[in-house]
Amino acid sequence: MLPRRSIIPEEFAFSPALLSPIHRRPVFRDRVNKARFIAKSGACNLSHKNIREQGRFLQDVVTTLVDLKWRFTLVIFSMTFLCSWLLFGMFWWLVAFAHGDLDPNRKIGVEQCVTNVNSFTSAFLFSIEVQVTIGFGGRMITEQCPTAIMLLILQNIIGLIINAVMLGCIFMKTAQSHRRAETLIFSRHAVIAVRNNRLCLMIRVGDLRKSMIINAVVHLQVVRKTTTPEGEVIPIHQIDVQTESAVASNSIFLLAPLIICHVIDKDSPLYDLSAMELQCNDLEVIVILEGVVETTGISTQARTSYVTEEILWGHRFVSIVNEEEGVYSVDYSKFGNTVKVATPRCSARELDEKPSILIQTLQKSELSQQNSLRKRNSMRRNNSMRKSNSMRCNNSTLAVPKVQFFTPEGGPNLAVT
Fold first, then answer.
1. Where is the Potassium channel inwardly rectifying transmembrane domain positioned along the sequence (predicted)?
2. Where do you find CATH 1.10.287.70 in the chain?
3. CATH 2.60.40.1400 location in the chain
4. What CATH class is the domain 68-174?
5. If you count Cβ atoms within 10 Å of the first and of the last residue's Cβ in the chain, which end, N or C, has fewer?
6. Which secondary-structure segment (H or E) carries 313?
7. Does residue 135 surpass a pLDDT of 80?
8. Is the per-residue pLDDT at 367 higher than 60?
């Protein structure tokens, strides 16, 4: 029997070092990740429990039907019409039964309330013909029965009301405002960098459609858990955050992707947070974009949020708008791309108290850029010199002539290159 070492090559066998347990340094987190209030898709991550007054939802039937899922809406839509047809079909059968139209031994010459209604099935078919205004010509009302005439008027009125409500709910459900919000996109990450010598929180917003959003307004909120001096715990404390265009009521012209900028000043909830403290803090930045759809005139709202892990400190969005042949083009493949820039790691408060920190950071970044540029230039020179030396060596070897030596006895020739 062959040994095991001869079957498995040594290069594919596990070494004892790999089989030994690996001792890694434990990683400690200062806080536990909690559920976010707004998902990246804009859905509210909130569940309602123990609602005792369930009857309030029936007081607003239209909104309840619109908020339901499609499968429930379609079932209710179908069952409403089917139940109304069955109900009035039963009424028509009772009218025919009371008038004696269902009696096979009725007197000849006495007209029926509804011709050719001889069973419940025919009464049900006649109910469908009346409510959906389909007349096949086989069944019709006569003037001998005033009750049938009143029932016909009542069914037409109730049928029109059912059609208006059901079709209106279906239209409102298909034309909901959040459908337009599917083409309003946000950057996956928010960034913090220096802009105009101030620390700024920046988010990129874009619209994929050519039809514009009129009167677009952006709202920023910071949601965090706070405790008042009296000891009251507020789990969802919403703090409004002003953007750079606060004078114009945050209105933006969303023709091309824009960068929404929030200056971290004394009124900002991020004023006392440094880069390290931000990662350890439990907060969530909520972005709400509202506007009116140009084509339909319906108000729409798009939402997203950023937790601290999705806020990149010391990054900046790359430019995606270029001018090509007199037309501005937007490259959405780089919509969320960022680059690292020189940014102080301290808080905005420390930066205001010591402006020299920003100057030192910019000087260090400039020196590092110069050193990297010098290294690149030196590497390029070395590579070019190596290439030139190799070319010279090749040329020198090619230029050496071949020399032949002859022995005086006429022996074999010896050629030396």
1. 38-176
2. 68-174
3. 180-321+329-354
4. mainly alpha
5. N
6. strand 311-313
7. no
8. yes
Q: How far is CA 414 from the centre of its chain?
A: 81
Phi-psi category of residue 27: left, alpha or beta, with phi > 0 → left and psi -120 to 50 → alpha: beta
Q: Quote the pLDDT of residue 20.
A: 40
CA 307 to mean position of chain CA atoms: 15
C-alpha distances (whole Å) from 251 to each of 212, 219, 333, 380 are 14, 10, 26, 50
Which residues, listed in sequence order, are joined to residue 269 by a DSSP beta bridge? none
Q: How many CA atoms lie within 13 A of 411 on its CB side?
A: 6
pLDDT for residue 182 is more than 70:
yes
d(CA 169, CA 180): 18
Which residues, in sequence order, are bridge partners of residue 206?
185
Contacts 24+ apart (CB under 8 A), 402-410: none
Do the Cβ atoms of 169 and 60 come closer than 8 Å? no
- Two tokens at 157? 């009125």
A 10 A CB-CB count for 27 gives 5
Report how far residue 109's alpha carbon sits from residue 210's, in angstroms, rounded to the nearest whole number.
Answer: 71
Q: Which pair of tokens denotes residue 342?
A: 């020189």
φ, ψ at 96 (rounded to 5°): -65, -35
The fraction of the chain above a pLDDT of 90, given in percent, is 17
Yes or no: say if 193 and 342 are a contact pair by the CB < 8 Å rule: no
